[in-house]
Every structure is written in C-alpha cells, then in structure tokens.
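User: Hi! Is it possible to get a structure for several chains at once, not just one? Here's what I have:
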Amino acid sequence: MSVPAGYYLILAAALFSIGAVGVLIRRSVIVMFMCVELMLNSVNLTLVTFARIQANLDGQVLAFFVIVVAAAEVVVGLALVVNLFRLRASTDADGVGALRA
Amino acid sequence: MTGLAEGAAVAAPAGSPAAWAWLMAVVPLASAAVLLLVGRRLGRAAPWVAILSAGFSLTLAVWTAVWLGAREAGERTVVHTVATWLPAGDLEVDWAVLVDPLAVAMSLLVTGVGLLIHVYSLGYMEHDRDIPRFFAYLNLFLGSMLVLVLGESLLTLFVGWELVGLCSYLLIGFWFDSRANASAAKKAFVINRVGDVGFMIAMFVLFGAIGSLSLTEVLPAAEGLAGGTLIAVGLLLFLGATGKSAQIPLYIWLPDAMAGPTPVSALIHAATMVTAGVYLVARMSPLYVQIPEIGLVVAAVGAATALVAALIAVAQSDIKRVLAYSTVSQLGYMFMAVGVGAYSAGIFHLLTHGFFKALLFLAAGSVMHAMADRGDIREMGGLLRDLPITGGTAAVGTLAIAGFPLTAGFYSKEEILAAVADTAGGEVILAIGLAVALLTAFYMARWFALVFLGPRRFEELEDPPHPHESPLSMTLPLVLLAVASLGGGLLNLDPETGLLAGWLAPSVVAFEQTAAIIGHGLLEAIAIALALVGLAAGVLLYRGGPRVVSEASTPVVRFAQDAFRVDELYRAAIVTPGHWLAVGLAWFDARGIDGLVNGAGRGTAALATAGARVQTGFVRSYALAVLIGTVLLIAALVGVWMAAADDLMLLGGWR
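Assistant: Yes, the chains can be modeled jointly so their relative placement is included. Here is the combined structure:
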C-alpha cells in the first residue's frame, strides 16, 4: 500500500509556502536564499509526483534540470552574499537599497 | 426702357473704355501699393504719383461716360469680366465690372472729387511728416471706392465696401499717436461691422433664393422672389446701408470720424464713402420697387436721422462737427429720396451734396490751416477779410446746402421733397423734410456767421493766430467745387425730363407715384421761404458772436450740445452690458474651463501621489504583491476549472 499522491502534493505546497513566506519576511540574505532553495525543491517534489501520476518521465527529467540550475544559482548567489557581507558587514537585505555601496 | 432689371446687360466690346474700366480701380490700388512700399524714397514726388493715378482714373471715367453716352439708351448696361475669382460649386464670382449709367455717374463723382482732394491735400498736408502714407491711403480709398461702384457682383461690391471701411479706419486714425484718434477710428470700424453683418446675411439669403450674386442675374430675378425674402433682404441691406451711411441707429461713428485729417473728412466722410449706402439701395432698386412699404421704412429712418442730426448740428461748436452732423442729416435726405423710390433724385442729391459738402469741408480745412489748427467756431469770426477765397467759396457752399434758389442743393432738395409729396403716406416725412430744410439753412448760416462774419474773437486769445489765405493747391479745388455747387443743378433741372433722370433710367426703377399731398409749386415756394428764413435767422442771430442762443446753456441746449447723449445711451445699453458679459465669460473661462483643465492635471497628480505610496522601494513588498496576485489568479483558475468539469484529468489520481 502506497502513500496517495495527494499527500506529496500537500507536502510540496506546504514546503513552497514556507519557502515563500521565508523569502518575504526574513531579512537575512542567507536565510532568504535557503528559502528559495526550499521553494525550488518543493517544485521538484511536485514535478516528480505528477510524473508518477501521469506515468511518464518528463517531470522527473525536468526535476533534474531544476537541480542543475539550482546548483548554478547557489554558486552565483553565495558569491554575491559573500561579497555583500564583505562590503557591508551584514547580510540584511533591506539595507541594500542603493546599487552603489 | 430696357436696363439692368430686364437683364439687358451686354458684354463690353473689345477696345472700348468699358473693357478697360477695371483699370480705373486697379491703377490707384497699384499706386497705393507702390507708395506704401517705396513712398519714403520717392520723397516729394510721392504725392504726384498719387495725383497722377487719380487723374488717370478721372480721365478713364470721363472717357467711359462719353462712350456710354454715345450708345443707344437700351445698350448702356455693359459688363466686362476680367478674371474668375471664386469658382466654388454653384457659386461663381468673377472679377467683373458693371459699367452702367449709375456706376458711371458715381465713378465720375468719386474720381472728380477724389482728384480735387488729392490736389488739396498737397497743400493741406504739406507739413506732415508722413505724406507718402497719407497719399497711399487716399489712393487705396479711391481704388476701393471704384471697386465698390463698378463691382458687377454683390460680393465684389462687398469687397469694395469693406476696403473703403478699412481706408476710413486707416485715415481717421492717420494721426494714431493720439488715443482719441485711434479710438475714433476703432469706433467707426466696429460700428460699420454691425451693418456689414446685415449686408452679409442679405447676400446669403439672396444666394439661397436665386443661386447667384451677380447683379446682372440677381436684379432681373428679384421680381420672382417671395414676399418674405424680399422684405428680409430689403431690411438687411438697409441695415448695411445704415452702418456705412451713418443713419439711425448706427450714425454715431461719423461725428467722431472728424478726428481724421480734413481732406479725409471731405472725401470719405462727406462726398463718397458715406454715400455708398444710398448707392447700394439705388443699385438694388428693382428689389426695393417691389416692397414700397419697406421703402417707406427706409424713408422714415432717413427722415428721423435728418431731423436728429440737424438738431444736434445747431448746437455744435466745432467747425467740423457741425459739418459732420450736417452730412448725417443730408444723408438722411438721400435715404428719404431712395426710400420713396425717387432714385434719380437721391443720386442727384448725392452728387450735389458731394460737391458742396466737399467744398464746405475743404473750406473748414482751409480755415483750420489759417487758425493754426483751432477748430472752435466760437473763437473765430471775421475771417472773411483774411480768407476771401475760402470765405467766398464757403458762402457758396452754405447757400447750396441751404437750398438757396438756383444753387445745386436747391434743385436736388426740391426734387426729393417733391417726390416725398407724391408718395402715399408721406405726410410726416414731408413735414420733417421741410423742418430739416429750415434747420439746415439755420445751422449753416450760424456756422458761416460765426466763422467768417462779426468781430474777430480770435484776436483776444492767448497766442492769437495770424490767419492767411491758403496756397493755390488748396484754393483751386475750393473754386472748382464752388462752381460745381453753383451749377450742379444743371444736371437735373427737372425730376422727369432732367439730364440725370434720363441718364439713370436704365439703371434704376422708379416707383409709381400715386398721391399728391401738396402741389409742387406751393412746395417749392415753402422750401424757398424756409431756406431764406433759416439763412437770415442764422446770420442775424450769430453775426455778433456765439452769445445769443448756444451759450444760454439751458438743459435743452446742453442736451443738444452733447449730441442727445446717444453715445452715453449706447454705452449704457450695449457697451456696458457687453463689457460685463465679457467679464463674466472671462471669469467662466478662467475658473470654469481652465479649472477643468487644471483640475484634470491636479487630479492626475493626486492619483500619482497616492499610487507612489505603494512603491516602497523594498523588493520584498513587490514580491509579496506578486505572490498574492499569483495565488488569487490560480485560485480563480482552479475555481473555474472545478466548476466547468467534474472529471479533471490533472487531479484524477487524487480523487
């Protein structure tokens, strides 16, 4: 007896919501960054779930793409965060209003 | 007699003066253009250019008259088309001249008096610094007046009509650096516009009814017009005429027009332009002949104007204002004549008045020249000794305008009164006409006595002038006009068989006269008696100076001195309400219309300020907005899907 697909989707929605709320309300760039990752992975979970429901592999393939892009994004994003921290000694996102520090 | 009303117009034979008559108008216009452009460089030659072009027009006018006189009486209506002006659908207007006895008579007056006044101006304007401009305007006027007189279409006539109005404006305001002159010019222009509106509407109505504005088509078709159309056109054209010819209710500009140089008053505001209204009514005689009751209105307005202006003239003390009101009064006589259908009598008086009133104005100019530009006749007196030629010719003019037997004015006034006496319902008009004849003789005698007779009051002034006779260029026109004022009666010794009556017959249609209010012999005797009494009373009362009546300053006299306060009445009744209307509309424009526009601007700005609050600059708040929007959109979509289909493939597994 397997777990119904609906539960996966609900879990994915919950993760996505947590991620979205985290992006919106947290100030630390690092935490916001992690929340984005959470949202991406919730989408991956959804893709895989639907792939199972539809019984084809398109969704799972797409999930791999997402993982690859997310990895690249982490590289760039963390570099930005490190540089930002070097410049301002803080990772507070609201403090970065101006393009020039 | 076949004439214009029967559509008997023929084309001008090539090479005849009628085919060249348009040059009569064009040459002075071209000369005016030359003088305006390079007049200053011409220096002392400038007036001669103007005089030569006026002389050319006179020569051509005389040649045309002689040529026309040699033709059969039935073939004296000649049209020559120079160019097409407006080919616009049904409306086609040509630059065409209509050479017929009426037009030729008018152009002889215009060019003849015009040339004399050009010559006179040579002396009168000698010391002015702007001589080329003055002569340019005189030439422009001469050409414009000839466009008016010779125009074959009502529209070309109207072009001339407006152009002479423009010249009048330019010449009244010739010395425009004085505010009074400039506002007199403006007044003349604006009041004329009121009449012009009537003229224009009349043209629209005629075009609507007949489909043409050409006189050779309109006048023969006038017979077939409906009664209402005829009455409307008749009244509207007369409204135009009251503006140009200074009749009640639009006469008030003419006395102020005396602000212009005196030769201008003589040429434009006495002899020629102001008679354009009379000419217009006479020109449209085939139309007016069908509505004698409107003719009676015209005559009544003329009579009322003649009386009012004559009464005012009695109390005036400015040498030119007396003559100005006299002109208004005499124009009233002309309208009396054309109103009762005595067109040849009206045109006859127009011509003789052109002679003696031009003479009187030029004499007044000569007097002012001698008096160092003083114009108050109460300060003059005894000038006959210093200015024998001016005084003598002015005496001739005074006798002529008063209707002294055998002078030109005697014959023309007599014919008008006789025509009125033959009109059914003309009793009151006749009585007014006779009263005005008495008044005319009286105020002109007063004028003459105060200026030329009695004690030399000007010697008691501070800085008394030293009067001297004017140069030959000024006295020569005076003498020639005096001769015309004396002998002008020869033009039409008898209303039926006279030279002018026969000459004008192809151009104008006379009314059938039915009544006989009073015998012509008796009428003539009464008129002569009135003229003599008026002259004698005027000379006797005022020979000793101005103290007798006009200084009594009773309210009545002061009322007449103030020209019956008509200006004040118009100011209170029309100008002030118009001013307040304008102020109200200006307020509405500033607050209403501009308020709407400014309000739109301010509303947009307020909306933008409110909207700008949403733009916090925090990316996360934007992201929140995006999230909320997306959630709402998806919720809506899901709702629609779920309502539309029970079996959702997407959610199939979940179910």
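The interface with chain A takes residues 617-620, 623-624, 627, 652-654 of chain B (CB under 8 Å). Residues 566-612 of chain B form the longest helix (47 residues).

User: Great, thank you!
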